[in-house]
Amino acid sequence: MRQIIVLGLALTAVLAIPLTDEQKQKLSDVHGRCQNDPVTHIDDSIFEKLRKREHVELPSNFAAHELCMSKGVGLINEDGSVNKEMLRKSISHSGVEESKVEEIVNQCGENQETPEKTAIHLRKCLLKHAVQDHVAHHGHVHEHSHAHH
To answer: Record's Pfam families (predicted)?
Structure first.
């Protein structure tokens, strides 16, 4: 269950969104679907290293996994484009100052050449903003608070 938190790098832990039991279950279900597909399966040791913020060589299918997760939680549409409304809602609920939400949506919600590149861009962009923001501290606490579930 701990690896589920890592997929939250771009989704919940970084945004520090408090999850209801229902949301945790959905996240777990999405992660399970992505892990059960050989194309998007990532070894659990990768998630463990990411969770610990250790340096890790990401496997070649990491972008496909990110895309699977982002689609599963609704941040990326089936056509591979960013769901800006869902992104806006997620960022708004994360504690980011309202005045910064649109700026982050515009930067992080840019579609890239491929859906996989879009998913990675979204993840990196959200991480960047979390580091520059107070959200990172909350995300770090949030991440550890659920690491034992």
So the answer is: PBP_GOBP
- Every domain of the chain and the residues it spans: 2-145
Radius of gyration of the chain from Cα atoms? 14
Per-residue pLDDT tens over the stretch 88-102: 988 887 778 888 999
Global confidence as pTM: 0.74
The single-letter DSSP state of residue 69 is H
Residue percentage of the chain with pLDDT more than 90? 42
55-66 confidence digits (pLDDT tens): 888 899 999 999
Dig out the tokens for 61 from the structure.
């299918």
CA distance 54 to 47: 10
* Residue where the block lists tokens 């980011």: 96
Angstrom distances, CA of residue 89 to CA of 13, 14, 19, 138, 140 = 15, 14, 14, 18, 20
CATH superfamily of 2-145: Pheromone/general odorant binding protein domain (1.10.238.20)
Q: Look at the block and give the residue holding tokens 């229902």.
A: 22
